[in-house]
Write a structure and sequence with these properties.
single chain, 422 residues
């Protein structure tokens, strides 16, 4: 056996979730689920393994995704497999597979584990979890409105206010029509302009204009495109509908394109307005042709995703983490007075657990006072010392560690008290 010790560090770009971390993760997941289900969305899931061809099947950017940013390998059956980097192709595959059995519209959500091989940085890791919400079937613009409203509500339900974020909306179909009105109809040219415009905020105005001129090679359309993109008074039916619903922190932003070629219509991003975390958190849009990759008539879809890493950053930036809901330990700790009382304490613990009270037994070898101190340090709410006298008399003392008070009674009486006061 080698004397070399294995490092305790996790793989680069992924995280270990200790109990306190997991409490935060569960808080995020629980809120996501509650909000999605309040809109009538049903939860689904799938394997993290997908055929690599699923991501190569549409667009050069997807080919680049598989070749450079995914964990792709050949399995023992000589099949090329990818750890899923996103969920939209998977849900499109599932919808296409069951299209004859489903009743549309279909509202589905999931919280998948996703993987991308890229440089870890703030808000972006090699592994993360993500809320995905998708609405299949309707082609009406109000489906777009519903999905943006749901994304808006996801943040509101964490305690956010509209001033903390901005909803940026664009429409690829509208952009293509505007390009066509300028005589730009070549799909390759339109694609190049779209990808360049999507990067506009990350480059200088001079670099953007120079690059746009190289693509179009005609000064007049370049000037008109620049005017179009900088028109802050722009609106469309989706924006007007959001305003009618009382969502006023939304606006048209013609630079929004989203990275994937499968988006066909409305696209949007939600951006944190705090300058210390001024980044995109939620992104999505409409994709009307994705299911056609699997045969049959296409089924229109619109959806969005938000990652747990960016969600964590947003909650931390705006101090939206609750304290009470993030407790990780038991509500009640039973402390045997002697080692001989361990089994009796376990039997009593079962009675509390059967009534829904989270209960643990300290079977360690520390002294009684130290065990009580440890329970207080770990934010356990209540303790009961279980000794032979208590067992014989059927009368126990329940100590409230938070306010240093106590309550005496039988197990049933203390159960009733805890259920009323926890």
């Amino acid at each position: 056996m080698s004397d070399k010790k294995i490092s305790t560090e996790s793989y680069k770009g992924v995280r270990d979730f200790f109990p306190a971390d997991m409490a935060k993760e569960r808080h995020i997941f629980n809120s996501w689920s509650k909000t999605a289900e309040s809109f009538g969305f049903e939860r689904y899931d799938a394997s993290i393994l997908e055929p690599a061809e699923l991501y190569r099947s549409k667009g050069a950017e997807n080919e680049e995704l598989v070749n450079e940013q995914t964990y792709t390998f050949t399995d023992r059956g000589d099949r090329e497999v990818t750890l899923r980097p996103e969920m939209t192709p998977t849900v499109a595959r599932m919808i296409a597979a069951k299209r004859r059995e489903l009743t549309f519209p279909v509202r589905w959500y999931s919280i998948p584990n996703l993987f991308r091989y890229e440089r870890p940085q703030r808000g972006r890791l090699r592994e993360h979890w993500q809320l995905n919400c998708d609405l299949f079937g309707p082609t009406d613009y109000t489906a777009d409105v519903e999905i943006i409203t749901l994304a808006y509500q996801v943040l509101i339900d964490f305690g956010a206010t509209p001033e903390m974020f901005t909803i940026l909306i664009n429409d690829r179909r509208e952009m293509s029509e505007l390009f066509a009105s300028l005589g730009i109809v070549d799909p390759e040219i339109v694609g190049q302009i779209t990808r360049l415009t999507d990067r506009k905020k990350k480059i200088s105005a001079e670099e953007y204009q120079t690059s746009l001129m190289k693509i179009i090679n005609n000064e007049a359309p370049v000037t008109q495109i620049l005017q179009l993109i900088e028109n802050e008074a722009a609106s469309n039916s989706v924006l007007n509908a959001l305003h009618s619903l009382g969502i006023y922190n939304a606006k048209i932003d013609r630079t929004i394109a989203r990275g994937f070629d499968y988006y066909t219509g409305m696209v949007f991003e939600i951006v944190d307005t705090d300058p210390t975390n001024n980044r995109s958190m939620i992104g999505g849009g409409r994709y009307d042709d994705l299911t056609s990759l699997f045969g049959g008539e296409p089924i229109s879809g619109v959806g969005f995703g938000i990652g747990d890493v960016t969600m964590n950053d947003f909650l931390t930036t705006h101090k939206l983490w609750p304290q009470e809901s993030l407790k990780t330990g038991p509500s009640l700790m039973l402390i045997p007075a002697e080692a001989d009382d361990h089994l009796s304490a376990q039997k009593i613990a079962a009675q509390f657990r059967s009534r829904g009270i989270k209960t643990a037994v300290d079977i360690g070898s520390k002294k009684l006072g130290k065990k009580i101190a440890d329970a207080a340090e770990n934010k356990v709410g209540f303790v009961i010392v279980v000794g032979q006298n208590e067992i014989d008399n059927g009368n126990f003392e329940l100590k409230n560690l938070a306010i240093e008070s106590s309550q005496n009674g039988s197990i049933e009486e203390l159960v009733t008290y805890l259920l009323a006061n926890s």
